[in-house]
Amino acid sequence: MKSDPHPVPDGEEALRRMFSEPAAFTDRLPPVASLDEARRRRARLAGLLTIAAAAVTAGVLVTANLGSLTTAPAPANTSSVEAASEYATPTPTPTPSASASPTPTPTPTAAPVAWTTFTDATGQATFELPVGWGVTENPHMIAGAPYNTITITNEAGKKVSTLQMFYDLAVGYDCPVAKPVSTLDAVVLDIPQKAAKKPGGGPSEFAFRVIQSDKVYGTMALNDADVAPEATSCVLYNTIVGPENVPLVSFGDTMSLKQDGQDAPLTFDTLAEAKAYMGSQEYQYIKRMLVSLSLKPTSGNYVSAAADASFKLPAGWTAQEVAAGTPDFPAVGIQVSDETGKTVASLYHGAGGGLGGACGPETYKATELDTGTLALTEQWAFAAGARFSYRVLDQTSVGKGFSYQVGLVDKSSGQLSDSCLMYSVVTGTPRGTLSFADRASKGPDEPVFQSMAEAKAYMETPEYKKLKNMILSLKMPAQG
User: Fold this and answer.
1) What is the pLDDT of residues 271-310, one digit of tens each?
2) Each residue of 387-422: pLDDT tens digit?
């Protein structure tokens, strides 16, 4: 405090002038805040400075309440901002927080492949293969014995394996110098073998073998392992001896691999490359398919002395003799049923009494979709022109679809001419007339297909394949 020489002002007079005299003035000072407001302002400033200092120390960019840290022109006479600038530091490089990190995209994995079980038309071979792979067959009978050739292709249409069933095999190959052979992978199979097999032969196995010649040639297939394998060879054969009453089998990419690589299914530059192939998906799929093979004999011949006939009966099918003919036309009948008990074929052998049949004035186009040579070797069968036939009659013009017959025909009944009737019979047999078919003649309750495509698709069904093989195997006179 200090002494003021001016006189003490008259307070009442000063107050009167303030309210009674006009005056003009400019307030250039910042507004005066109350004591409470000043305290709150200081508290906020101190809090902001503390948060900013902590954020800089941790290297974390705090933006929720401070806004951008980018330097901007400060407003005039803004003491709070000026005070904060005393603590400012260069803006740190933002470090993304854990919550802001992008979620890694998972590496896609191949979906599991579904597998299915396939049994060939003869009922002797069963194996697994991936869904989407293709299978084509060529079943046939020779002297009453079932043969088959099955080709397997992958989803891209590439042939990966062939399964062949045969009874005789002629082999022979000459080469100047045997080459080193190696077995890179092998799995012993649980497939029974005939008592009589090649001397020195071991159990059947899956094997991936190579011949090291100018290149490394390989084969994946089933074979009967040698008890004492040799270190060199001119050719590797891929066949196995199956159970009793089952033919020889070759299942793999080739029946034989020659040392010169002729028609080799697999070719590699080095042995290491061949070994690396075993890690591929293709190798693993083919190996699983080959290893899954199982073999079993068919149920054997059905023999009927009364009908003077025998034939191969598919596994699960049954046959029994039934009444047939009349006193005037004696005959023997055999009815064949499938696994469900449905009648799929009938055999009639005896005196012919006439098949009869009637139809309207319309005629329909007949088409033969399949045919085959019988196991019959008798002279009368050749003279009659007996054969297997699958025919359809196009009745779509009258809304009746495609009627069909599967069975034996001869030169007369098998003629392909426009007609309203079809017969599946052979005449001129030792007893007169023979029929072995799904039906001998048309009838009012016969099944029909709605299109030609449906009729053709029937040939790929197990029922058709078994029916065809059974009819083709017919022998007369009866033999065991």
Assistant:
1) 999 999 999 999 999 999 999 999 988 656 787 878 888 8
2) 999 999 999 998 989 999 999 999 999 988 888 889
Helix (H, G, I), strand (E, B) or coil at 56: helix
Determine contact, residues 422/393, Cβ cutoff 8 Å. yes
DSSP label at residue 12:
H
Angstrom distance (rounded) from CA 376 to CA 388: 11
Q: Is residue 274 within 8 Å of 218, Cβ to Cβ?
A: yes
At residue 62, what are phi and psi to the nearest 5 degrees?
A: -100, 120
* CA separation, residue 428 to residues 183, 333, 370, 411 (Å): 59, 18, 24, 11
Residues 303-343: tens digit of each pLDDT: 787 888 888 888 778 888 888 888 888 899 999 998 888 99
Q: Give the burial class of 61: count Cβ atoms within 10 A of its Cβ; 0-12 exposed, 13-18 middle, 19 or more buried.
A: middle
| Cβ 245 vs Cβ 480: under 8 Å | no
Instruction: Confirm if 284 and 270 have CB atoms less than 8 A apart.
Output: no
- Under the phi-then-psi rule, with left for phi > 0, alpha for psi from -120 to 50, and beta for the rest, what region is 77? left
Which residues are 319's β-sheet partners? 336
- pTM beyond 0.90: the answer is no
How far apart CA 260 and CA 272 sit, in angstroms, is 20
Q: What is the mean pLDDT of residues 162-166?
A: 93
d(CA 126, CA 335): 27
* Residue 131 · residue 111 · CB < 8 Å: no
Burial class (CB in 10 A: 0-12, 13-18, 19+), 295: buried
Pick from 410, 414, 408, 400: nearest CA to 443: 400
Q: Say whether the peptide bond before residue 9 is cis (omega within 30 degrees of 0).
A: no
Give the residue from 389, 393, 392 showing the smallest Cα distance to 408. Answer: 389
Tokens found for residue 183: 């077995």
- Helix count and strand count (H, E) for the chain: 8, 26
Place of tokens 């029929």: 435
Q: Which tops the pLDDT comparison, 196 or 43?
A: 196
Identity at 414, one-letter amino acid code? G
pLDDT exceeds 90 at position 76 = no
The encoded tokens of residue 352 equal 């012919």
Instruction: Check if the beta carbon of residue 420 is closer than 8 Å to that of residue 391.
Output: no
